[in-house]
Write a structure and sequence with these properties.
Length: 377
Amino acid sequence: MSPNRVAAVCAHSICAAALLFSACASAPSAAPGGSGTLLIVGGGLDNDSRPIYERFVELASARGPAHILIATAATGAQEDEVVDKSEALRVWAPEANVRAIRRETSTDDTVAAIDAASGILFTGGDQKRITARYRPDDHDTPEWLAMRRLLARGGVIAGCSAGDAMMGEVMLLGGGSAGALGIVPVPAGDPAAQSASADPASEPGVRLGPGMGFLPWAVTDSHFFERDRVGRLVAALEASGRRLGLGVGEDGCVEVDLATTEVRGIGVSESLLVDAAHLERDGLERRRLLARVIRQGDRISLSERLATKPPLPVPLVGVARDVPVVEPGQNRQLASWRLFRSAARPGASVERLRLDGWQVTAWPAGDGEVAFDIGPR
């Protein structure tokens, strides 16, 4: 495909997505209500992920005994996941009442279970299965309204992987960064130019759809650093008109207090807040983006961030240092995390990560912020 054709396809995809989500581009909507909480887990939630499970149980038992639901709508092998997560929860909350709701569970039984629950844990798989079951075509259902009631009475909804991706009003449906950015991925047979952790190649253009709408202020993405998804999150922000994105790594978790809009780092693995306030587009280049690494214990107010516009990032100056991409199996392919972590240091050099047909260049923006550009290699 010629460069002009790629740009045309990408522009068409972005315009279509912008029209689809024009309502989302306006000021953020109000919180779902009450003092409910979201726990957004990037994926790979191991049974011994102590900070995440302990916080989930603490929130689910804040107003009385914990009544926890495992929601397996996203998962292929539902019964295996029910057993796995039930056993994990019994380790961390032996007194909790743990039940499961499956894709096949009737509406009446699902609503009754949610109305009796204090917490829901959505398992991983395909996020489109979640919205197809509980919010098809962006329509309210009895099950979705019951989930809103759970949040309104101070309950907690946690989601892992697919359960992370479905949290916002705008949902990423899949694909890799190169395709989302409109860059044709390099051939699969060219290992020298491939990132070890890249997503499979896809047609140019970001793929978006309506999410579950629990999180009004940001677009979420999972397996973030491990699969080099910063490019597709930037493309999603651009196409949807949203300003903020939350990329959560594997075994990472961010807590969102819906009453205060505060985000807090929970898991030992880190996450990234991406801010497109100054985003500029030049062909396939996206420039003047900002990011902040969210470490365990860090707190960020999304409403305060949206109420102000951060200073324009200083221009890129200096020769970039290339961040190496490790081979599969080494250090969980965290080159993207190393890039943003290194660039956040005061006085750090310009950092560059070359991936499958695209690259990220990052440098310090002051006060822990990182400025970065994304474009073709």
